[in-house]
Fold this sequence. Notes:
- This is (rape) hypothetical protein.
- There is one protein chain.
- With 150 residues, the protein is an alpha+beta fold.
- It folds into 2 domains: 1-79, no CATH class; 82-150, no CATH class.
- Helices cover 28% and strands 16% of the residues.
- It contains 3 helices and 5 strands.
- The longest helix is centred in the N-terminal third of the chain and has 16 residues, at 41-56.
- It starts with a strand and ends with a helix.
Amino acid sequence: MYAADFRNRLGSPVPESYFGSCVLSVGCFGHKAGVVSGEDGFVNAVEIISDSVGGVGTLDVEALCELYIDGTMRVEPGTQTVSIVGSNRFGLYQSDFGWGKPVSCETVSIDRNEAFSMSERRDESGGVEIGLCLKKGEMDLFIDLFQNGL
């Protein structure tokens, strides 16, 4: 699951500076674990999410809400899900509330779920910072896979 910005899809225009209840959850439901595991798992996951993000722009708010509700109703109890938190387009490192720009931005809400967060890089190079929270054994495996070329 990930969040999508719907400010530009509402009947009444909402200013770009508004940040609030115009963010909706979007889900990629119906995919079995085998699709995103194994040698091609990462590539498959990227394609699934990319296709979903591309499709969001073609749907209005009502249609997306219906898809989300239908998808969550089909998820069986105990099914493992992954959530993506944050965005590399929020401009967190450019915000200044009077005491200077942030040195580090972290999403603390991922510590209780199997989720990862995304934000833009502090140095404004166009890159992405990714935060990940896993159980120790899972993190050790992830680190090993990541260091050996994923």
